[in-house]
Design goal:
InterPro entries: Cyt_P450 (IPR001128), Cyt_P450_E_grp-I (IPR002401), Cyt_P450_sf (IPR036396), Cytochrome_P450_monoxygenase (IPR050121). It holds the Pfam family p450. One of its GO terms (biological process) is secondary metabolite biosynthetic process. It is a single chain. Among the domains are: about 45 residues, no CATH class; about 210 residues, Cytochrome P450 (Cytochrome p450). It has 19 helices and 6 strands. The strands form 2 sheets. Strands 1-2-6-3 form a 4-stranded mixed sheet, sandwiched between helices. Strands 4-5 form a two-stranded antiparallel ribbon. The structure holds protoporphyrin IX containing FE.
Length: about 450
């Protein structure tokens, strides 16, 4: 068809006049008014979340809420919203925050309210226990790794944990004090982070990373880079495809994959050469022995994703909690004195190494201080996003329709005044005795229900 004929056809369709129309301001004014009218009608009469209280903008956008996340003020901000609007607050066109402990426990109890789609962006491009939204897959992985976190499993590695963890840190501090003629400066957070990484290194990678011994442990950098690049990949997908963007983070992520690979091969070789003790039940071994749904061994890519995930899930959470606990002891010397007195009374021999089971049995006040620390400073203090399922859910104050996002607000649950008296105060005594045991059931620092933290023991 010649270009003249084509132009003729366009003219006959009236497209020219349509183009003219697009150029007029009246057209755009009418279009915007029509859209605005539709939106007003929608939000007033049709929007499924229209009865959920919240600030006006939450009907249209969640941008102000997201901005606060990047500013680091989202938790305080959401507390204010709940104070003003109640236990269920709308924070975006499809999202509500929930802060009542009983509602939260119902949401988390079953697989019905699955993790929402923000979890889809897996950390290492392979499905793993944490980010999967599939019930069957999650059940399978939890069953496979479960023995490593059972009492028998943990007993089998307790000496390794003590060697790589508390004994190594004690030695480091003693050497430091000796070298400094009685004076030594220590950054507790950095050291707790290294200690936790070394322990998870032993259990999930089959070897410690030597982080505690090092001044600037590379494993910590690799973990941090992997987290950063995974978040960037999730929120800015082009980053993945443009090689020169965030090159260093990408190279660190590759290093952690290569390192994981070498650890897996080293363990396989040790088994082949009968150099690996069958009594040792650890995370790496559980996954190496496990089979996928089709009966084949877990693929290397998935295995790497699982062990790196353990490192990411366990390192900062545990070390941040340990740091807060120490901070509370420094802020409340009377609490610290009580902890020391309890230990002295239960274990009069100073050189005794206190084991996990003994601590559980004999140190109730110490445990109470840990619970109260985790209540006030949960390491995952923000939100656990869940889907409201195809049926929706009736919470204590509101019905949430299907296709909504339920933001389980952990810090909110830990400050719920219908459960906790004076929630802003550090009072470990609240967890003592039979009532204290009951109260502890309202803690959700490790989440709750079917997706509760696999490493909580
Ligand atoms: C004080 C320390 C810890 C805290 C506060 C903590 C907290 C949590 C929370 C809140 C979740 C749920 C996350 C969600 O639903 O999005 C979770 C899940 C998980 N955590 Fe932990 N965690 C801790 C330590 C650990 C350790 C040491 C490990 C392993 C070495 C670990 C492994 C996991 C895994 C595998 C999951 C996913 C469980 C699933 O989805 O089925 N965590 N943790």
């Amino acid at each position: 068809m010649s270009s003249q004929k084509l132009l003729g056809a366009v003219n006959s369709l009236g497209l020219n006049s349509l183009l003219e129309l697009f150029k007029t301001s009246r057209f755009w004014f009418n279009l915007i008014s029509a859209y605005g009218t539709y939106k007003v009608i929608y939000y007033l009469f049709l929007d499924p979340l229209r009865r959920i209280p919240g600030l006006w903008w939450s009907r249209f956008t969640d941008l102000p809420f997201r901005i606060r996340r990047f500013r680091g003020t989202q938790v305080q901000y959401t507390h204010q919203l709940h104070k003003r609007f109640g236990s269920v607050v709308r924070v975006g066109p499809h999202s509500v925050s929930v802060n009542k402990a009983c509602d939260i426990k119902r949401i988390l109890a079953s697989y019905k309210f699955s993790k929402s789609k923000v979890y889809d962006n897996a950390i290492l491009d392979a499905e793993e226990i944490f980010s999967t939204r599939k019930e069957q897959f999650n059940r399978l992985r939890r069953r496979q790794v479960g023995p490593a976190f059972s009492t028998t499993g943990l007993d089998s590695v307790e000496d390794i944990i003590l060697d790589v963890g508390s004994r190594a840190l004690k030695k480091k501090i003693e050497t430091g004090i000796e070298k400094g003629n009685g004076s030594y400066t220590i950054n507790y957070f950095d050291n707790f982070q290294s200690l936790t990484a070394d322990i998870i290194g032993e259990l999930a990678f089959g070897r410690p990373f030597g982080a505690l011994e090092s001044e600037k442990p590379s494993i910590i950098r690799l973990v941090n880079s992997t987290i950063v690049i995974s978040v960037l990949d999730a929120f800015m997908p082009p980053v993945k495809y443009i090689p020169f963007l965030f090159k260093n983070y990408k190279s660190d992520k590759k290093q952690i994959i290569d390192f994981s690979n070498s650890c897996i091969e080293a363990r396989r070789k040790a088994i082949e050469n009968n150099e690996f003790s069958k009594d040792r039940i650890d995370i790496l071994q559980m996954y190496l022995d496990a089979h996928d749904l089709d009966g084949s061994p877990i693929k290397k890519k998935e295995l790497i994703a699982e062990i790196v995930l353990m490192l990411i899930a366990g390192t900062d959470t545990t070390s941040v909690t340990m740091t807060w606990l120490l901070h509370f002891y420094l802020m409340y010397p009377e609490v610290y004195k009580k902890v020391v007195a309890e230990i002295d009374q239960a274990f009069s021999e100073k050189s005794t190494v206190i084991r996990y089971k003994e601590a559980r049995q004999n140190l109730p006040y110490f445990q109470a201080t840990v619970y109260e620390c985790m209540r006030m400073k949960p390491a995952v203090g923000g939100f656990l996003p869940r889907d409201s399922s195809s049926d929706g859910i009736q919470l204590s104050d509101h019905y949430i329709p299907p296709n909504s996002e339920l933001l389980v607000f952990i810090d909110g649950a830990h400050n719920d005044e219908s459960v906790w008296t004076s929630p802003k105060k550090y009072i470990p005594e609240r967890f003592m005795g039979e009532n204290g045991k009951e109260l502890a059931k309202n803690l959700v620092a490790f989440s709750s229900g079917v997706r509760i933290c696999a490493g909580r023991k």
